[in-house]
Specification:
The complex is a heterodimer. By secondary structure, chain A is mainly alpha-helical. Chain A has 13 helices and no strands. In chain A, helix 2 packs across helix 13, helix 5 crosses helix 11 and helix 8 packs across helix 10. Chain A is globular. The chains are: A mainly alpha, B mainly alpha.
């Protein structure tokens, strides 16, 4: 009813209305901008400042980066996180996409909906809770799948959490808590594929496999990349899993397994705030570059 | 459309063995994943009702007894003079205050980015996107330094304020307003003499209920489950949120950590503590479930 009315109105009043709106817009974002500066930009600046100075505040170039990189634990931590990321991202892409496609093909909407809900439940157990649950699942003395662990050759908790198994175990924990949410997201994206595209594939005689591979997965590409970037940035921050495991295993997984544990250790055990900041900056550069490439290239966030 | 659906049901009724095999395979795969996702939760529920003996020797998916459950409850609440309830209270306080601040900050910001023009809008939008994709854990040590410089270490504000900064919430609200609320509607209200705040409060906000609920849910869960930040900011036991609290319980379980002294906690009590830690999230989650499973994308996709 107001379409013509309002466009006529805005044409005549544009200058006044715009400046009023502009002032209101600034007022509405003011609190957010304060928080963005205080807890986004300022700490980032702080990290960069500390990373390039010494304890006395003198500029030291890259020496903090060199010192931390030469720490005997650094390359190990990089390797651990890299291997974990590889397992985590591959399993996420393969299983989340396959499960979403399977659920989408289910004839019964009720079953599909219930399964999506059940898969999502562990999402409520994020954080320390998921690690505690999996400590139990991986301890052959109490695990409900101890016979399965036995068949795989594991009879004690110590054997299960041997250092070589950790990337896989952390992947299982992360997948258990995180996959359900991503399945819901990818499922939603599948729903957004226009009906006539699917119909056309069916009429052309494409099998379910061909439809998935040639039609659905290409149309999901943007979402899959989005998932990978967020999972990559999150996974590089590995902390709570090895930290809790180190409490439960008397040192099997050290307190310096991941890069974030190493920053904690530099800052609070070795009193080397500048070294900790250098490692933080490295992690930040890696995640922000990944994010920036994604924002710039994918067109996912067509902001304007 | 209807015809296609009809054909599909007809096809399903006449199932040949050649078509049956892949269906069985699909069923098997989905069932296997269902066990993977659900079994640990089920086990955890039952573990809290057992004694440590029953946990080791009994059938893993059996119910223990209410008596053992009560005993576990008593032992857990006795630990450090009811520390567990204190931790739960702390978590509630931290998560709820930051949730309120998040909503008061993020919803107007998302609205302004979507519906109004002002200088620096584009810059703000881009920095929100970048910060949103930047994981907060990298900033924990710098945040500690900053909060330390402001003499707030050990106060609840040292985690509430960083939690309140939630760019993902701004982004979700922004997307919601750009896609779901026509600008003409707001323009009409302005012409009718509504102030800018009135437009937001009376027109935009009521329309935004779903996205407010969604942002609230995500922010609550993110805050409740955060471990690293409070672990660094709140070292005192009586300030810990439940996440850090159950971590400290874990180091008092002899079967996981043989070096424990007299303050031992048994595994069923740890399971009970874990259950308590997830209960608020599960409750919120059951309420939000309707939005999540069917409409999680309502505000997250651009048509």
């Amino acid at each position: 009813m107001t379409a013509t009315h309002s466009s006529a109105g805005s044409a005549t009043r544009r200058p006044r209305g715009t400046s009023r709106q502009s002032r209101a817009g600034v007022a509405f974002v003011a609190a957010y901008v304060l928080l963005l500066i205080a807890f986004g930009i300022l700490p980032t600046g702080y990290a960069v400042y500390f990373a390039f100075t010494d304890a006395g505040g003198t500029f030291t170039g890259f020496s903090n980066f060199v010192t931390t990189a030469q720490d005997f634990r650094f390359m190990d931590a990089v390797g651990h996180v890299a291997l974990y990321l590889l397992f985590w991202l591959v399993s996420l892409v393969v299983f989340v996409v396959s499960l979403a496609l399977l659920l989408h093909r289910l004839a019964s909407g009720t079953i599909s909906k219930s399964l999506r809900f059940l898969f999502y439940i562990p999402g409520a157990l994020a954080g320390a809770a998921s690690v505690l649950v999996w400590l139990f699942m991986l301890d052959p003395t109490v695990s409900p799948v101890s016979s399965l662990l036995g068949m795989l050759g594991f009879h004690t908790f110590g054997e299960v959490i041997a250092p070589g198994n950790l990337p896989l175990l952390f992947t299982i924990i992360a997948f258990w808590t995180g996959a359900g949410g991503w399945i819901v997201v990818i499922y939603g994206a599948l729903n957004n594929i226009p009906q006539d595209v699917m119909e056309a594939a069916r009429i052309d005689g494409a099998s379910a496999w061909q439809t998935a591979w040639r039609v659905q997965i290409p149309m999901l590409r943007k979402w899959i990349v989005y998932m990978v970037i967020l999972a990559f940035a999150g996974g590089a921050q590995l902390f709570v899993e090895p930290q809790l495991l180190s409490l439960a295993s008397v040192g099997v997984a050290g307190r310096d397994y991941s890069l974030n544990q190493l920053t904690y250790d530099f800052a609070f055990q070795m009193n080397n705030i500048n070294g900790a900041a250098a490692v933080s900056v490295e992690l930040l550069v890696v995640s922000v570059s990944a994010a920036a490439v994604f924002v710039a290239r994918s067109g996912f966030f067509d902001a304007d | 459309m209807r015809g296609a659906h009809h054909r599909a049901t007809e096809r399903r009724r006449t199932l040949s063995p050649r078509r049956l095999a892949p269906r069985l395979l699909i069923g098997f795969v989905l069932a296997a994943f269902m066990v993977f996702f659900v079994l640990p939760v089920l086990w955890l529920l039952l573990a809290a009702t057992k004694t440590d003996q029953q946990l080791v020797h009994g059938s893993p998916l059996s119910f223990g007894s209410w008596h053992a459950f009560k005993a576990n409850w008593n032992a857990l609440t006795a630990f450090q003079d009811n520390a567990i309830m204190q931790w739960l209270g702390n978590s509630t306080l931290y998560a709820v205050i930051s949730l309120v601040i998040t909503l008061c900050v993020a919803v107007p910001a998302g609205y302004a980015l979507a519906m109004t023009e002002f200088r620096g809008r584009h810059t703000l939008l881009v920095s929100t996107l970048v910060v949103m994709l930047m994981p907060t854990a990298t900033l924990v040590v710098p945040l500690f330094l900053e909060v330390n410089a402001a003499h707030l270490i050990g106060t609840m504000w040292s985690i509430i304020l960083p939690y309140s900064f939630y760019p993902f919430g701004v982004y979700l609200t922004y997307i919601y307003f750009t896609t779901a609320v026509p600008k003409d509607l707001l323009a009409a209200a302005r012409i009718d003499g509504c102030s800018e705040f009135g437009v937001f409060w009376h027109i935009a906000l009521p329309l935004a209920t779903p996205v407010v609920a969604l942002v609230g849910f995500f922010s609550f869960v993110a805050n409740w489950t955060n471990y690293f930040l409070p672990y660094v900011m709140l070292p005192e036991s009586d300030q810990m949120p439940i996440q850090v609290g159950v971590g400290s319980l874990l180091s008092n379980v002899p079967s996981f950590n043989p070096a424990v002294g007299t303050l031992a906690i048994e595994r069923p009590q740890l399971a009970l503590a874990t259950l308590l830690a997830i209960t608020p999230v599960l409750i919120v989650f059951l309420f939000a479930q309707r939005f999540l499973v069917s409409g999680m994308l309502a505000g997250a996709t651009k048509e």
